[in-house]
Amino acid sequence: xxxxxTPVMEAVAALLAAVIxxxxxPYIKTKTTTDQQRQINTWVQxxxxxxxxIYNGPGRxxxxxxxxxxxxxxxxxxxxxxxxDAMIEAAVYDLKNGAIIYAN
Length: 104
Description:
Layout lengths: L5 H26 L2 H21 L6 H14 L6 H16 L8
Helix pairs in contact: 1-4, 2-3, 2-4
């Protein structure tokens, strides 16, 4: 008997995105200026988009995340690892749902 866990994974991703939106993002906002927040979010979105283009195909999540983390560190984004993970997950969710908008 085979079970399709896709709906479960989608529900977990949606829940994670909701938690990030409700908890992590407001916390980060209290520690940075509006301009810094915008810049960090933009860098995360750019890195996630680049990783999605470079590492095509299923099962490449670890490669993508490693690329994003390294790229952000090289560009001076210094955010706590847990917060960075949350921001990456939110950017991936936004990218897959067509919600990434690049602002100047």
